Amino acid sequence: MAYVDWEFAKTTGRTLVPAGPVVSPAEARAEVEAIREAAREARQPVADTARMHTPPEAPAALVVDRATWIAVNADSMAALLDPAVEAIVSKRNVTPGPAAQAVGSKVTGAEAGALLAFMSSKVLGQYDIAPGGTPALLLVAPNLVATARELNVDPDDFRRWVCMHEETHRVQFTANPWLREHVISQARHLAIDLAPDQERMQEIASRFTERLPELFAEGSTGVADLFTTPEQREQLARLTAVMSLLEGHADVVMDDVGPAHIASVAEIRRKFTARRKGAGSADRLLRRLLGLEAKMRQYRDGAVFVRAVQDEVGVDGFNAVWTSPDTLPQPREIADPAAWVRRVHA
User: Strand, coil or helix: what is 63?
Assistant: First the structure.
């Protein structure tokens, strides 16, 4: 029996998912086709700018609704985390009884579903690396419509802009096949290492109220701060550095491609950046608790790193970052791009 009921997570997510923007059936069909076309058109400009290519046989982007995004991500989370959970249980050498396991799997499934429902209204697109499955480029149609309306920007330009970002993620992984397995492996190892033992759980529970303000403090990485030791935070920082690279690179490419293909790219970037900062206080607190504020820092810090490296050694010199795990930036190098240049290009 699984320790997380992922089917129940999907059901919970579908139940809790917020309604999308109101559109007619004809408008929905037109939007889906427009997104597909924008995704097709993004491939060559991204390849030319990043100087990396998605293989021609790569499947077309999938345009999905929020419920489908939840289902796809529940499957990916299961493939990523189930082996880690099995390893954790084996390491503890304690197996709960069938009844306790059944109840526990429903509880954890409900928690996962609630988180996915919350995220499903935030995500514009995603390159799903699909541990154990087939990677896919996803674009969430209702969120593209809702965000373009919220920002009051040209919807055609906004579609192209988002597709440039997500196509960059696809080319990062498809042009460098080792990267996918590296990220999956690192994430699984981290999940195992982050699982606290009984003694650690008791310590956390006893100090939860005392440490709760830390979770909302500027610079917090969310609930992970509560559960992690200094050694674990160092391991988390290494994975965060990779994610900063991926997100920052995608932001740089989408903006560099923009002027030739997206007339209003500067306006979109300005409004989108303001939107990232301008959520209401309750939303900001929830984002900080879940670690989403740290995610926002990844875009900013990663983009600064990428631009600094490209300014010093050019795009081809920057692309040495994709050579192997050894050439990925170390945590301190994200804030000190010149240190990466010295280490890799010495």
Answer: strand
Backbone angles phi, psi at 131, to 5 degrees: -55, 125
Type of residue found at 280: G
Read off the pLDDT of residues 45-67 as tens digits, 9 standing for 90 and up: 999 999 999 998 999 999 999 99
Q: In what order do the strands lie in the sheet with 125-128?
A: 62-64, 136-140, 125-128
Q: What is the C-alpha to C-alpha distance for residues 43 and 98, in angstroms, rounded to an integer? A: 49
Give Cα separations from 80 to 130, 134, 207 (angstroms): 8, 13, 30
Sign of the CA dihedral with 309 first, then 315, 317, and 318 last: positive
Report yes or no: 180 and 135 within 8 Å, Cβ to Cβ: yes
The helix (H) or strand (E) run that includes residue 252 is helix 230-261
**What are the extents of the domains in the chain?**
6-345
pLDDT digits (tens, 9 = 90+) for 194-224: 665 545 444 444 554 455 455 445 555 555 5
Best CA proximity match to 162, nearest among 180, 185, 183, 143: 143
Q: Which residues contact 90 (CB under 8 A, 6 or more apart)?
A: none
Measured at the alpha carbon of residue 292, what is the angle toward residues 239 and 34, in degrees to the nearest 5?
A: 100
What SS3 class is residue 216?
Answer: coil
Residue with tokens 């802009």: 161
Strand-strand pairing, 136-140 and 125-128: antiparallel
